[in-house]
Amino acid sequence: MSTPLSNRATTTPTLIAEVLRGAIESGELEPGQPLRQEELATRFKVSRIPVRDALKQLETEGLVVIYPNRGAFVADLNPKEILEVYEIRILLEVDALRRALPKLSPLILDRAEAILEQMEREANPVQWSELDDTFHTALYLPAERPKLLELIGQQRTVVNRFYFLNQPLAGSIKQCHLEHRQLLEACRQGNFDNARAALESHLESAAQTVAQNAQQREQNRIQQLRNTLRKKI
């Protein structure tokens, strides 16, 4: 995980949640992995109370699920749930783009293009994902709808960690780079219909990739269980 809390100035549920969130988003903590309060309290050198509060915070973000009498687990999503999240993202992000487009100045668009250029050079999946968020946020920020952007950020956080499952980075982003360029060009033209079509196509493509990755991961898990059972027979 990230820097231990014992090395930080303050130990709080927010800081614990920050460390766990980073580990979940990077894939260090995998979907379905148990998050035992006792182990986390020992790791962070705190009591169970701030750990419990941190897990509840992550539950509200959709990153953790807590079951009565079973404990907390890193949230997993099946393909149907992933597609639903992307349907929500399309609704929210198209609205943000509609509001922002008239206010997208050449300077803002140039900054967005600079982010794309950085993304196209980035080989680290976690860093690439952060740049992806930064690019989209740059296009939506002029909408001046902070609550809307907060909702968009929450939905992204739920699904971003599934994007690179089961496939190499290079194979995941080639098409994505092209779609980003098409979206940016439509924004430069100030054509909302084209920009909306580009954004919807981009998110629908991402939804299929993420859903397929989740399905493949589940198939791999089932195969591993079968192999384990065969060894025991």
At the fourth level of CATH, the homologous superfamily of the largest domain is GntR ligand-binding domain-like
Strand tally: 3
Q: From the alpha carbons, calculate the radius of gyration and give it in angstroms.
A: 20 Å
Mean pLDDT: 88
Taking strands numbered 1, 2, ... along the chain, how are they ordered across the largest sheet? 1-3-2
Q: Termini, distance in Å?
A: 37 Å
Beta-strand content estimate: under 5%
Per CATH, the class of the largest domain reads: Mainly Alpha
Task: Give the count of helical stretches.
Answer: 9
User: What profile does the largest beta sheet have?
Assistant: 3 strands, antiparallel
Order of helices and strands: HEHHEEHHHHHH
Low-confidence stretches: none
CATH-assigned fold name of the largest domain: Four Helix Bundle (Hemerythrin (Met), subunit A)
Key phrases:
mainly alpha; Arc Repressor Mutant, subunit A; Four Helix Bundle (Hemerythrin (Met), subunit A); 2 domains; 9 helices; 3 strands; globular
